[in-house]
């Protein structure tokens, strides 16, 4: 089952619970957060108010892949990046504040 929601809009950053994934607008898990879930590498587009805002992530899955284009498109000149650590305090200069879509496994 695939789910994606902004519950009541952005909320102050909090650590994710069991089985949850969270994207944060600031490095080191600061600022607002958006809880997300998904499986099997299904592409999920971020809500437009979360385009170009992600700086750090926490998740309890095996991999997260961020894309700078909608619909998980990969194109020359537009970065994308995979993450396999469960806590990523900074997504790196290439993807900081650039994500528009993602996949999680």
UniProtKB/TrEMBL annotation:
Which Gene3D superfamilies does the annotation name? Crystallins
SUPFAM superfamilies on file? gamma-Crystallin-like
- UniProt xrefs under InterPro entries: G_crystallin-like
Q: Which organism is it from?
A: Streptomyces lycii
* Protein name (Swiss-Prot/TrEMBL): Uncharacterized protein
